[in-house]
């Protein structure tokens, strides 16, 4: 086994990274000669290989090639160049001896058609064995407010006293639904943890820590330091066309950067032209970007492309177009992404550089084999954390030997996502080879190359999501995903799981808050809440406030508290609810256990709509009675075929509590028959008209009372072939009948004949069988699942 692989197995990844970074690329001890007097201050300059130069003068160059070594003198310096290519070493400070003067690197190349060695122009690049070592002052990158900063305030109080100074630029990010409510200010005075600003705040920036039982909701706005003593930036022309500078590191080269500001960087709409970019480097142990800021970018914050073992830590990204922190092809692994802040991430209007940039995320993670912890996504026009795992890597990293979608989740822990236009965490929607996205079920396995190997349930730990206009969490997986110890507040919906039948998702030990004290900032023209708060959907103010939403499933909620879900005259609210409207399949065995409530309506189901069989057949089992008061009771919507006189109507829930067992079933046809409008009737006359608004009109989704007789009456001709699928309910029987024009048919279970009963009465008990009434021309079925996960019965006309 290679030494590096063995070391990785024996050591934690962070320790492995620390050991390696002390050993790579030792710096030459050759005594440098002064730049002044030996090299020109203007024009085109090349530092030859073997030469070491002390940069002791300001230079304004058309271009600079460093094949030898350039070391910054201990003085304030300015470097202007159309582009800078490093084949040798550029060093200003070291990780242990920081550069504490001011270094300004201005990139000035403004000819978009110029392409220097594949890097275009206006760049600081490393190629071959080039090394970039830039290490500015070690300063606190970001912290949080200690108390709410009110609109109009001159001062803010921070959670900790910062190492910041008068004259520094900072950003106070948004604490409401609008990413653009982040505010950039200059510090005019500091006293301990109190900071005085250059101008009054235009918006309130919230901070509160609220206890709910044994759990705490913390909604405290982050404050990031933008200033650094080393600045790499595009020239003044960058701002007019969005054609800023970029830093690019190629295979064989390296970059270790800390304490640096990237300002007006990135080239709008251009692939590969990002403020910071590791490009197809491969394994890069010891390389990093830490304690830096990326400000007013025109194309993402940074990209790790075909590169592994990079450490991104303590950085602040503020204001960019397209995805922020970006793992490009889905092959990138063993990178450490921790303690970074990203804010004001805007959608790319023209969809460049990729289609998904039109729905920009602060963190785009395309491979689960990375450490993502302690980060904050504080305001994207779309998504905070987007985890979209392709089946195989794409782009320049395309290979069929790597399976990101089936790779176990290395670590996703202690991340926070707020003030996003859509979702806090989105696990779905991976990129296709053409960079469009499509629906994706995450299915991590112990051996990713073997699609039949054991599932490894992904655990998303201690995730906090608040003030997201849509879902705090959207998670699509059939690997029994676990949302552990989450805190979700002030989202339209706390969490939404999309699973395949038989593979439950779990939400455990969590807190879900409907409305906190954070009322946000409203505009004069928008509809407001009754207490003056901003609404998640001001354009649709009657939308119900929803906690955790049951969807296809099954899904299990365990040891979770719901707080502050109350109806008012504007909208309804419920801690536990279902997807609505929903035309798709829903599980019949979703459960809840050890649920608690504080100032909350426990359940809310929106009124049923036509052609939405999913919400019409939502069934939730209260395992221990912590919702209904009686263990084992089911909560069902106001669908007549689900409730009986034995059920109890809960008007505040718009739902019934029932003592019955239910069994899920789907029906499919294959000859183009439109099943919309089919009438489902229970033996006591209760009916529901079935149908779907989306997907295939040749399918029906329903949940039936166990062992009760049901009839199906189609609007049109009976199809030749009908499949009945039972996904759940081992040992439970469902009984259905339907018109059938002829006795010349077969009924099979997985291709094997099903027994024929002598009368309808025989279908009252026993196993799977059927009866055909020749006079009424009606087929009666009794369907019993033996396995529980999936049984398929088929009727075929001969």
Short précis:
With about 800 residues, this protein is mainly beta. Helix content is about 5%, strand content about 40%.
Describe the structure in your own words:
The chain has four helices and 72 strands. It has a 29-stranded parallel sheet that branches. An eleven-stranded parallel sheet has the order 1-3-5-8-11-22-25-28-31-34-37, with helices on one face. Strands 42-45-48-51-54-56-57-59-58 form a nine-stranded mixed sheet, with no helix packed on it. It is mainly beta and 798 residues long. Strand 40 and strand 41 form a beta hairpin. The N terminus is likely disordered.
Topology record:
Blueprint lengths: L2 H8 L2 H9 L11 E2 L7 E6 L4 E4 L3 E8 L2 E4 L4 E5 L2 E3 L2 E4 L10 E5 L15 E4 L4 E5 L6 E3 L10 E3 L11 E4 L10 E9 L2 E4 L9 E6 L2 E6 L1 E4 L4 E5 L3 H4 L4 E4 L4 E5 L1 E4 L12 E8 L4 E3 L2 E3 L6 E7 L2 E3 L2 E6 L3 E3 L8 E3 L2 E6 L14 E5 L5 E3 L2 E2 L5 E5 L23 E3 L2 E3 L4 E5 L2 E2 L5 E2 L20 E3 L2 E3 L4 E6 L5 E3 L2 E3 L3 E6 L6 E4 L2 E3 L31 E6 L4 E4 L2 E5 L7 E6 L11 E4 L2 E5 L12 H4 L3 E3 L10 E5 L10 E3 L4 E4 L3 E8 L9 E4 L4 E3 L9 E7 L3 E5 L7 E6 L6 E7 L5 E5 L2 E2 L1 E2 L12 E5 L4 E7 L6 E7 L1
């Amino acid at each position: 086994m290679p030494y590096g692989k063995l070391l990785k197995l024996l050591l934690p990844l962070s320790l492995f990274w620390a050991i390696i970074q002390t050993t790579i690329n030792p710096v030459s001890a050759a005594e440098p000669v002064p730049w002044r007097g030996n090299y020109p201050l203007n024009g085109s300059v090349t530092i030859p290989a073997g030469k070491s130069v002390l940069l002791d003068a300001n230079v304004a160059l058309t271009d600079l090639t460093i094949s030898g070594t350039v070391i910054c003198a201990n003085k304030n310096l300015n470097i202007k160049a159309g582009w800078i290519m490093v084949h040798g070493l550029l060093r200003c400070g070291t990780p242990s001896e920081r550069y504490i003067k001011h270094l300004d690197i201005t990139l000035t190349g403004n000819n978009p058609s110029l392409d220097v060695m594949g890097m275009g122009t206006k760049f600081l690049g490393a190629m071959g064995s080039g090394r970039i070592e830039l290490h500015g002052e070690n300063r606190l990158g970001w912290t949080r407010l200690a108390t709410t900063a009110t609109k109009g305030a001159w001062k803010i109080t921070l959670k900790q006293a910062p190492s910041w100074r008068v004259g520094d630029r900072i950003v106070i990010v948004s604490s409401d639904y609008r990413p653009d409510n982040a505010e950039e200010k200059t510090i005019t005075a500091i006293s301990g943890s109190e900071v005085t600003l250059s101008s009054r705040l235009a918006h309130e920036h919230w901070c509160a820590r609220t206890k709910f039982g044994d759990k705490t909701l913390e909604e405290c706005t982050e404050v990031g330091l933008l200033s650094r003593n080393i600045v790499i930036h595009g020239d003044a022309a960058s701002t007019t066309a969005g054609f800023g500078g970029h830093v690019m590191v190629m295979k064989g080269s390296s970059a270790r950067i800390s304490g640096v500001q990237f300002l007006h960087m990135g080239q709008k709409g251009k692939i590969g032209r990002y403020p910071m970019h590791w490009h197809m480097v491969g394994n890069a142990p010891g390389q990093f970007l830490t304690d830096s800021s990326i400000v007013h970018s025109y194309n993402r914050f940074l990209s790790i492309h075909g590169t592994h073992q990079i450490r991104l830590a303590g950085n602040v990204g503020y204001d960019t177009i397209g995805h922020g922190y970006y793992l490009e092809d889905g092959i990138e692994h063993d990178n450490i992404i921790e303690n970074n802040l990203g804010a004001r991430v805007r959608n790319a209007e023209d969809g460049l550089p990729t289609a998904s940039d039109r729905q920009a995320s602060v963190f785009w993670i395309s491979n689960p084999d990375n450490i993502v912890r302690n980060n904050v996504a504080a305001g994207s026009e779309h998504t905070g954390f987007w985890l979209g795992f392709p089946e195989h890597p794409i782009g320049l990293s395309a290979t069929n030997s790597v399976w990101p979608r089936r790779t176990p989740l290395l670590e996703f822990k202690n991340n926070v996502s707020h003030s996003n236009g859509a979702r806090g965490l989105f696990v779905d929607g991976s990129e296709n080879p053409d960079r469009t996205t499509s629906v994706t079920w995450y299915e991590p396995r112990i051996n990713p190359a073997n699609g039949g190997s054991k599932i490894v349930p992904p655990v998303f730990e201690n995730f906090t999501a608040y003030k997201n206009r849509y879902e705090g969490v959207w998670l699509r997986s059939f690997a029994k995903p676990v949302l552990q110890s989450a805190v979700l507040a002030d989202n339209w919906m706390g969490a939404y799981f999309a699973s395949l039948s038989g593979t439950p998702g779990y939400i455990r030990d969590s807190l879900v808050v409907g409305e906190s004290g954070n009322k946000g900032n409203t505009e004069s023209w928008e509809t407001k809440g009754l207490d003056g708060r901003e609404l998640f959907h001001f354009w649709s103010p009657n939308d119900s406030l929803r906690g955790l939403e049951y969807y296809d499933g099954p899904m299990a909620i365990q040891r979770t508290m719901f707080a502050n879900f109350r109806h008012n005259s504007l909208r309804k609210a419920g801690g536990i609810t279902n997807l609505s409207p929903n035309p798709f399949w829903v599980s019949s065995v979703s459960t809840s256990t050890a649920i608690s409530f504080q100032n909350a309506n426990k359940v809310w189901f929106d009124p049923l709509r036509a052609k939405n069989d999913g919400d019409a057949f939502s069934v939730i089992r209260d395992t221990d009675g912590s919702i209904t008061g009686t263990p084992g009771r089911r909560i069902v919507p106001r669908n007549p075929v689900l409730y009986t006189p034995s059920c109890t109507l809960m008007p505040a829930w718009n739902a019934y509590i029932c003592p019955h067992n239910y069994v899920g079933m789907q029906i499919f046809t294959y000859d183009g028959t439109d099943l919309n409008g089919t009438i489902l009737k229970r033996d006591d006359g209760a009916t529901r008209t079935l149908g779907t608004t989306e997907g295939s009109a040749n399918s029906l989704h329903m949940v039936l009372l166990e062992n009760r007789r049901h009839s199906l009456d189609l609007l049109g001709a009976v199809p030749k072939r009908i499949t009945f699928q039972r996904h759940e309910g081992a040992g439970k029987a469902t009984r259905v009948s339907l018109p059938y024009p002829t006795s010349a048919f077969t009924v099979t279970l997985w291709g094997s004949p099903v027994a024929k009963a002598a009368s309808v009465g025989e279908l009252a008990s026993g196993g799977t069988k059927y009866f055909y009434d020749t006079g009424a021309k009606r087929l009666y079925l009794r369907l019993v699942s033996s396995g529980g996960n999936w049984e398929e019965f088929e009727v075929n006309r001969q």
